[in-house]
Amino acid sequence: MPTSEIVRAALDEVQDPELHMSITSLGLIYDVRLLGEHNEQIEIDMTLTSPMCPVGPEFKQAVETRVAEVPGVKSVVVNLVFSPPWDPRTMANDDAKLQLGIW
Fold it and tell me: pLDDT tens digit string along 46-69?
């Protein structure tokens, strides 16, 4: 049965295509919800570094594909949200901030 930790570990493997850093370390994942009797339906709220990101559709597909590979997952829905706006100064972890030169 999928757990939040397993899904988030799978998301750790997905990198932002422009920054080449994990989307979780960048703070692009806002919420992960496990639905269904056996947590087989996953719904993810995520954002992009920019609302006009030219690779947004491919990026969203990469997240869906990776989470769909988690054993026990039957469906994945990724919602692109832009509220609150992504701010790496408050949403990225310390390692990502260091790589981005934010201190």
Answer: 999 998 888 889 999 999 999 999
